[in-house]
Amino acid sequence: MPEERVFNFAAGPSQLPLEVLQKAGSEITDYHGIGMSVMEMSHRSKMFQEIFLDTKNRFRRLMHVPENYEILFLQGGGSSEFSMVPLNLMARTGKADYAITGHFSEVAAKEAEKYGSVSIVCSTADTGHNRIPAQEELHLDPEASYFHYCANNTIYGTEWQYVPDTGSVPLVSDMSSEITSRRVDISKYGIIYAGAQKNVGPAGVTIVIIRRDLAGNALPITPLMMNYQTLIAKDSMYNTPPCWCIYMVGLVLEWLESQGGVEAMEQKKHQKAELLYKVLDDSHLFHCHALPGSRSDMNVTFRTGNDDLDSKFVAEAAEHGLVNLKGHRLVKGMRASIYNAMPMEGVERLAEFIQKFDAEN
């Protein structure tokens, strides 16, 4: 191994806390003296059941999930939820509202069109998805079965700074990029889902928070393994769940608790983001993709406007231990993902490098 770990700014799979990796490493071949790894355990075993329940209870406690909501640990990533949400919720009226503020919300809407009538209540495509629409721009249908939006747009670096008011229409949100980074009033939502690989664990497990009364109304064509009621009834274990990933999520949540919980993470994420945005706004060379007021605290997207110069920045940053800063192909430029596990030191190092590169180019 290198003498010093790099600062990994990847959008996902992303950097994990070093303490978590070290603990997982110490238990990789022998979990708590039982002579086997968590990867080798039966998901029906007493030992794994304890791991599972501890992870689930810790998540409920950290995220302040009300008792009338179920917590599921599933497979298939956020992309599977693009199908599962309409399959389970569309039946009420056959209609759904979608806000298009980035690539993944657009894919989700197209998938939902297979199962009912989809209304695009707003779209920021005309401005390159560089902003979040205001409440008054949302053309809502009071008869929609649900309203879906992506809370943080990883590719474009925008984030909803408010919770949309949809009246009695259930609110569904993809929170993959910001789950556990801030306090959320779960009671305002019908469903929240998140791929763990960005902010709370490794790739392979998807966390779903669902209000219990919304399950049990799936379309007749819904596959067995995509029916929320089936999964709730078996507590995420109708089939073999992603055991190792759930264990890793549990370790991250334990670390998160030791750091002061989501409330502390919210303060830290603001501090990290403010530092980067200030340096970028003060620069003569760089400019941010997202407009002020819509900027993400999780994914900072920026560029110079010159593809060759952007490539030079990414290459030289890597030489300084600042890796995976290349932006998504849809936006290009650079993207710094500063999730919970990214320490302030990493952000400070990146800010210093931005200032150095700005001065020298």
TrEMBL record:
UniProtKB keywords: Amino-acid biosynthesis, Aminotransferase, Cytoplasm, Pyridoxal phosphate, Serine biosynthesis, Transferase
Cellular component terms per the entry's GO annotation: cytoplasm
Modified residues (N6-(pyridoxal phosphate)lysine): 198
UniProt-listed Enzyme Commission number(s): 2.6.1.52
Record-linked Gene3D superfamilies: Aspartate Aminotransferase, domain 1, Type I PLP-dependent aspartate aminotransferase-like (Major domain)
Residues that coordinate or bind L-glutamate: 44
Catalytic activity annotation: 4-(phosphooxy)-L-threonine + 2-oxoglutarate = (R)-3-hydroxy-2-oxo-4-phosphooxybutanoate + L-glutamate; O-phospho-L-serine + 2-oxoglutarate = 3-phosphooxypyruvate + L-glutamate
Pfam families, per database record: Aminotran_5
Subcellular location(s) of the protein: Cytoplasm
GO MF annotations in UniProt: O-phospho-L-serine:2-oxoglutarate aminotransferase activity; pyridoxal phosphate binding
Protein's pathway: Amino-acid biosynthesis; L-serine biosynthesis; L-serine from 3-phospho-D-glycerate: step 2/3
Broad class of enzyme this protein falls into: transferase
Origin superkingdom: Bacteria
InterPro entries on file: Aminotrans_V_dom, Aminotrans_V_PyrdxlP_BS, Pser_aminoTfrase, PyrdxlP-dep_Trfase, PyrdxlP-dep_Trfase_major, PyrdxlP-dep_Trfase_small
GO BP, sorted A to Z: L-serine biosynthetic process
Span of domain Aminotransferase class V: 6-350
Binding site for pyridoxal 5'-phosphate: 78-79, 104, 154, 174, 197, 239-240
Cofactor comment: Binds 1 pyridoxal phosphate per subunit.
Cofactor(s) named in the record: pyridoxal 5'-phosphate
Main function: Catalyzes the reversible conversion of 3-phosphohydroxypyruvate to phosphoserine and of 3-hydroxy-2-oxo-4-phosphonooxybutanoate to phosphohydroxythreonine.
Assembly with partners or alone: Homodimer.
Record-stated family: Belongs to the class-V pyridoxal-phosphate-dependent aminotransferase family. SerC subfamily.
Descriptive protein name: Phosphoserine aminotransferase
